[in-house]
Amino acid sequence: MVILDGKKISNQIKDEIATEVTQMKERGEKVPHLAAVLVGNDGASLTYVGSKVRSCKRIGFESTLKHLPEDTTEEDLLSLVNDLNKDPEIDGYIVQLPLPKHIDEQKVLMAVHPDKDVDGFHPTNFGKMALDMETFISATPYGIMELLRRYEVDTEGKHAVIIGRSHIVGRPISILMSQKGKAANATVPLCHSRTKNIKELTLQADIVVSALGVPHFLKADMVKPGAVVIDVGITRVEDKSKEKGYYITGDVDFEKVKEKASYITPVPGGVGPMTIAMLLKNTLLARERHRGNA
User: Fold this and answer.
1) Which of 4, 62, 164, 199 could cross-link with 211 by S-S, CB 3.0 to 4.6 Å?
2) Is the bond leading into 98 cis (omega within 30 degrees of zero)?
3) Same topology between domain 28-113 and domain 139-272
4) Model confidence over 243-256: pLDDT tens digits?
Protein backbone atom coordinates (compact mmCIF):
# COMPACT_ATOMS: atom_id res chain seq x y z
CA MET A 1 0.00 0.00 0.00
CA VAL A 2 1.33 3.41 -1.02
CA ILE A 3 0.24 6.66 0.64
CA LEU A 4 -0.42 9.34 -2.00
CA ASP A 5 1.35 12.12 -0.12
CA GLY A 6 -0.27 15.35 -1.28
CA LYS A 7 1.80 17.43 1.10
CA LYS A 8 5.06 16.18 -0.41
CA ILE A 9 3.92 16.57 -4.02
CA SER A 10 2.42 20.01 -3.38
CA ASN A 11 5.76 21.15 -1.94
CA GLN A 12 7.50 19.89 -5.08
CA ILE A 13 5.07 21.89 -7.24
CA LYS A 14 5.56 25.01 -5.10
CA ASP A 15 9.34 24.65 -5.44
CA GLU A 16 8.97 24.39 -9.24
CA ILE A 17 6.78 27.52 -9.33
CA ALA A 18 9.20 29.38 -7.02
CA THR A 19 12.01 28.67 -9.48
CA GLU A 20 9.94 30.19 -12.30
CA VAL A 21 9.13 33.23 -10.18
CA THR A 22 12.84 33.74 -9.39
CA GLN A 23 13.58 33.68 -13.12
CA MET A 24 10.81 36.25 -13.72
CA LYS A 25 12.38 38.56 -11.13
CA GLU A 26 15.82 38.14 -12.72
CA ARG A 27 14.32 39.22 -16.06
CA GLY A 28 12.71 42.23 -14.38
CA GLU A 29 9.19 40.93 -15.01
CA LYS A 30 6.12 41.38 -12.83
CA VAL A 31 5.52 38.33 -10.62
CA PRO A 32 2.07 36.67 -10.40
CA HIS A 33 -0.45 38.35 -8.11
CA LEU A 34 -3.27 36.33 -6.52
CA ALA A 35 -6.15 37.97 -4.65
CA ALA A 36 -8.65 36.30 -2.34
CA VAL A 37 -12.05 37.62 -1.26
CA LEU A 38 -13.38 36.39 2.08
CA VAL A 39 -16.79 37.40 3.41
CA GLY A 40 -17.40 36.76 7.11
CA ASN A 41 -15.43 34.69 9.61
CA ASP A 42 -16.11 31.04 8.77
CA GLY A 43 -13.39 29.07 10.60
CA ALA A 44 -12.55 26.66 7.78
CA SER A 45 -12.49 29.48 5.22
CA LEU A 46 -10.17 31.58 7.39
CA THR A 47 -7.78 28.63 7.70
CA TYR A 48 -7.87 27.90 3.97
CA VAL A 49 -7.36 31.52 2.87
CA GLY A 50 -4.56 31.93 5.41
CA SER A 51 -2.81 28.90 3.92
CA LYS A 52 -3.11 30.41 0.43
CA VAL A 53 -1.57 33.70 1.57
CA ARG A 54 1.34 31.88 3.26
CA SER A 55 1.90 29.77 0.13
CA CYS A 56 2.04 32.90 -2.03
CA LYS A 57 4.67 34.42 0.24
CA ARG A 58 6.74 31.23 0.16
CA ILE A 59 6.94 31.01 -3.64
CA GLY A 60 7.34 34.73 -4.29
CA PHE A 61 3.83 35.61 -5.51
CA GLU A 62 2.21 38.88 -4.55
CA SER A 63 -1.07 38.37 -2.71
CA THR A 64 -3.99 40.51 -1.62
CA LEU A 65 -6.69 39.56 0.87
CA LYS A 66 -10.01 41.38 0.76
CA HIS A 67 -11.74 40.44 4.03
CA LEU A 68 -15.29 41.77 4.18
CA PRO A 69 -17.76 41.68 7.09
CA GLU A 70 -20.50 39.06 7.31
CA ASP A 71 -23.22 41.63 6.58
CA THR A 72 -21.65 42.80 3.30
CA THR A 73 -24.39 43.26 0.71
CA GLU A 74 -24.48 41.33 -2.54
CA GLU A 75 -24.27 44.65 -4.38
CA ASP A 76 -21.06 45.63 -2.56
CA LEU A 77 -19.47 42.23 -3.18
CA LEU A 78 -20.32 42.42 -6.89
CA SER A 79 -18.80 45.89 -7.00
CA LEU A 80 -15.55 44.51 -5.55
CA VAL A 81 -15.58 41.65 -8.07
CA ASN A 82 -15.95 44.20 -10.86
CA ASP A 83 -13.00 46.19 -9.47
CA LEU A 84 -10.83 43.06 -9.37
CA ASN A 85 -11.83 42.20 -12.94
CA LYS A 86 -10.54 45.61 -14.09
CA ASP A 87 -7.41 45.77 -11.91
CA PRO A 88 -4.39 45.14 -14.19
CA GLU A 89 -2.20 44.30 -11.19
CA ILE A 90 -4.31 41.26 -10.24
CA ASP A 91 -3.62 38.20 -12.42
CA GLY A 92 -6.21 35.95 -10.80
CA TYR A 93 -8.48 35.87 -7.78
CA ILE A 94 -10.85 33.65 -5.87
CA VAL A 95 -14.05 34.32 -3.98
CA GLN A 96 -13.90 31.97 -1.00
CA LEU A 97 -16.97 29.78 -0.54
CA PRO A 98 -19.32 29.42 1.23
CA LEU A 99 -20.73 32.94 1.10
CA PRO A 100 -23.31 34.21 3.63
CA LYS A 101 -26.83 32.99 2.86
CA HIS A 102 -28.11 36.42 1.78
CA ILE A 103 -25.67 36.42 -1.16
CA ASP A 104 -26.33 34.48 -4.38
CA GLU A 105 -23.14 32.45 -4.88
CA GLN A 106 -23.95 31.63 -8.49
CA LYS A 107 -24.46 35.29 -9.35
CA VAL A 108 -21.11 36.22 -7.80
CA LEU A 109 -19.17 33.38 -9.48
CA MET A 110 -20.71 34.30 -12.85
CA ALA A 111 -19.46 37.88 -12.35
CA VAL A 112 -15.82 36.75 -12.04
CA HIS A 113 -14.06 37.34 -15.37
CA PRO A 114 -13.11 33.94 -16.92
CA ASP A 115 -9.54 35.15 -17.54
CA LYS A 116 -9.05 35.75 -13.81
CA ASP A 117 -11.10 32.78 -12.59
CA VAL A 118 -8.19 30.74 -11.17
CA ASP A 119 -10.69 28.60 -9.23
CA GLY A 120 -11.98 27.33 -12.61
CA PHE A 121 -15.63 27.68 -11.58
CA HIS A 122 -16.91 29.94 -14.40
CA PRO A 123 -19.02 28.15 -17.08
CA THR A 124 -16.59 29.35 -19.77
CA ASN A 125 -13.70 27.56 -18.07
CA PHE A 126 -15.76 24.49 -17.19
CA GLY A 127 -16.85 24.24 -20.82
CA LYS A 128 -13.30 24.53 -22.12
CA MET A 129 -12.20 21.86 -19.65
CA ALA A 130 -14.96 19.54 -20.90
CA LEU A 131 -13.81 20.15 -24.49
CA ASP A 132 -10.19 19.35 -23.55
CA MET A 133 -9.03 22.92 -24.27
CA GLU A 134 -6.40 24.80 -22.28
CA THR A 135 -8.11 26.58 -19.42
CA PHE A 136 -8.21 26.97 -15.65
CA ILE A 137 -9.19 23.58 -14.24
CA SER A 138 -10.93 23.57 -10.88
CA ALA A 139 -8.08 23.21 -8.39
CA THR A 140 -9.24 20.09 -6.52
CA PRO A 141 -9.78 17.81 -9.55
CA TYR A 142 -6.65 19.33 -11.11
CA GLY A 143 -4.77 18.34 -7.95
CA ILE A 144 -6.13 14.79 -8.04
CA MET A 145 -5.01 14.38 -11.65
CA GLU A 146 -1.53 15.71 -10.84
CA LEU A 147 -1.23 13.38 -7.84
CA LEU A 148 -2.10 10.38 -10.03
CA ARG A 149 0.38 11.50 -12.70
CA ARG A 150 3.28 12.06 -10.35
CA TYR A 151 2.81 8.71 -8.62
CA GLU A 152 2.39 7.11 -12.07
CA VAL A 153 -0.86 5.40 -11.06
CA ASP A 154 -2.11 3.31 -13.97
CA THR A 155 -5.56 4.54 -15.03
CA GLU A 156 -5.52 3.30 -18.64
CA GLY A 157 -8.73 1.34 -19.29
CA LYS A 158 -9.50 1.18 -15.56
CA HIS A 159 -12.93 1.36 -13.97
CA ALA A 160 -13.00 4.59 -11.92
CA VAL A 161 -16.08 5.26 -9.78
CA ILE A 162 -16.71 8.84 -8.66
CA ILE A 163 -18.96 9.41 -5.63
CA GLY A 164 -20.42 12.92 -5.61
CA ARG A 165 -21.68 15.10 -8.48
CA SER A 166 -20.72 18.63 -7.42
CA HIS A 167 -19.65 21.11 -10.10
CA ILE A 168 -16.44 21.71 -8.14
CA VAL A 169 -15.14 18.13 -7.82
CA GLY A 170 -17.35 15.21 -8.87
CA ARG A 171 -18.40 16.27 -12.35
CA PRO A 172 -15.06 17.73 -13.45
CA ILE A 173 -12.98 14.77 -12.21
CA SER A 174 -15.35 12.36 -14.01
CA ILE A 175 -14.72 14.29 -17.24
CA LEU A 176 -10.95 14.60 -16.77
CA MET A 177 -10.44 10.91 -16.00
CA SER A 178 -12.44 9.86 -19.06
CA GLN A 179 -10.46 12.08 -21.44
CA LYS A 180 -7.39 11.05 -23.40
CA GLY A 181 -4.04 11.52 -21.70
CA LYS A 182 -1.94 10.63 -18.68
CA ALA A 183 -3.89 9.68 -15.53
CA ALA A 184 -6.96 9.40 -17.77
CA ASN A 185 -8.45 6.99 -20.37
CA ALA A 186 -10.61 5.43 -17.68
CA THR A 187 -14.24 4.31 -17.80
CA VAL A 188 -15.99 6.58 -15.31
CA PRO A 189 -19.47 6.12 -13.81
CA LEU A 190 -20.63 8.99 -11.58
CA CYS A 191 -22.57 8.11 -8.41
CA HIS A 192 -24.65 10.41 -6.21
CA SER A 193 -27.35 10.42 -3.52
CA ARG A 194 -29.93 8.83 -5.83
CA THR A 195 -27.65 6.06 -7.10
CA LYS A 196 -28.87 2.60 -6.12
CA ASN A 197 -26.46 -0.08 -4.92
CA ILE A 198 -23.37 2.11 -4.71
CA LYS A 199 -21.54 -0.70 -2.95
CA GLU A 200 -21.95 -2.95 -6.00
CA LEU A 201 -20.34 -0.28 -8.17
CA THR A 202 -17.46 0.51 -5.81
CA LEU A 203 -16.63 -3.19 -5.45
CA GLN A 204 -16.08 -3.30 -9.21
CA ALA A 205 -13.92 -0.18 -9.19
CA ASP A 206 -10.17 -0.14 -9.78
CA ILE A 207 -10.21 3.51 -8.62
CA VAL A 208 -12.66 5.16 -6.20
CA VAL A 209 -12.84 8.95 -5.79
CA SER A 210 -15.12 9.95 -2.92
CA ALA A 211 -16.23 13.59 -2.76
CA LEU A 212 -19.32 13.44 -0.58
CA GLY A 213 -18.34 15.17 2.64
CA VAL A 214 -19.80 12.31 4.71
CA PRO A 215 -17.35 11.07 7.37
CA HIS A 216 -16.25 7.43 6.92
CA PHE A 217 -18.82 6.79 4.17
CA LEU A 218 -16.53 4.46 2.24
CA LYS A 219 -16.01 1.28 4.30
CA ALA A 220 -13.54 -1.54 3.75
CA ASP A 221 -16.31 -3.88 2.58
CA MET A 222 -17.06 -1.43 -0.27
CA VAL A 223 -13.56 -1.61 -1.76
CA LYS A 224 -11.97 -4.46 -3.68
CA PRO A 225 -8.40 -5.55 -2.91
CA GLY A 226 -5.82 -3.47 -4.77
CA ALA A 227 -8.10 -0.51 -5.46
CA VAL A 228 -6.81 3.06 -5.65
CA VAL A 229 -8.74 5.23 -3.17
CA ILE A 230 -8.87 9.03 -3.42
CA ASP A 231 -10.53 10.77 -0.46
CA VAL A 232 -11.69 14.31 -1.26
CA GLY A 233 -13.93 14.67 1.80
CA ILE A 234 -12.84 16.88 4.67
CA THR A 235 -15.18 17.25 7.63
CA ARG A 236 -14.77 18.74 11.10
CA VAL A 237 -16.18 16.24 13.60
CA GLU A 238 -16.92 17.54 17.08
CA ASP A 239 -14.78 15.88 19.75
CA LYS A 240 -14.50 17.47 23.21
CA SER A 241 -11.46 15.31 24.00
CA LYS A 242 -9.42 17.18 21.39
CA GLU A 243 -7.69 20.47 22.19
CA LYS A 244 -9.50 22.25 19.32
CA GLY A 245 -12.80 20.58 20.16
CA TYR A 246 -12.90 18.71 16.85
CA TYR A 247 -10.90 16.47 14.54
CA ILE A 248 -10.61 16.41 10.74
CA THR A 249 -11.63 13.31 8.83
CA GLY A 250 -12.47 12.28 5.29
CA ASP A 251 -15.08 10.20 3.46
CA VAL A 252 -12.99 7.05 3.80
CA ASP A 253 -12.63 4.76 6.82
CA PHE A 254 -8.88 5.16 6.36
CA GLU A 255 -7.45 2.72 8.92
CA LYS A 256 -9.45 -0.22 7.57
CA VAL A 257 -9.56 0.69 3.88
CA LYS A 258 -5.77 1.18 3.69
CA GLU A 259 -5.33 -2.54 4.43
CA LYS A 260 -7.02 -3.33 1.09
CA ALA A 261 -5.92 -0.41 -1.10
CA SER A 262 -2.88 -0.28 -3.39
CA TYR A 263 -2.79 3.54 -3.19
CA ILE A 264 -4.71 5.81 -0.82
CA THR A 265 -4.81 9.50 0.11
CA PRO A 266 -4.82 10.49 3.79
CA VAL A 267 -6.98 13.23 5.32
CA PRO A 268 -5.51 15.64 6.09
CA GLY A 269 -2.39 15.68 3.90
CA GLY A 270 -3.74 14.18 0.68
CA VAL A 271 -5.93 16.10 -1.76
CA GLY A 272 -6.12 19.28 0.38
CA PRO A 273 -2.52 20.49 -0.11
CA MET A 274 -2.78 19.66 -3.83
CA THR A 275 -5.76 22.00 -4.16
CA ILE A 276 -3.70 24.98 -2.98
CA ALA A 277 -0.72 24.00 -5.18
CA MET A 278 -2.89 23.84 -8.31
CA LEU A 279 -4.54 27.16 -7.49
CA LEU A 280 -1.02 28.64 -7.56
CA LYS A 281 -0.36 26.80 -10.83
CA ASN A 282 -3.51 28.38 -12.31
CA THR A 283 -2.35 31.81 -11.14
CA LEU A 284 0.97 31.28 -12.89
CA LEU A 285 -0.94 30.37 -16.06
CA ALA A 286 -3.03 33.54 -15.69
CA ARG A 287 0.14 35.62 -15.40
CA GLU A 288 1.59 34.00 -18.54
CA ARG A 289 -1.63 34.71 -20.46
CA HIS A 290 -1.69 38.36 -19.38
CA ARG A 291 1.97 38.78 -20.31
CA GLY A 292 1.22 37.28 -23.73
CA ASN A 293 -1.62 39.76 -24.22
CA ALA A 294 0.38 42.76 -23.02
Assistant:
1) 164
2) yes
3) yes
4) 888 888 999 999 99
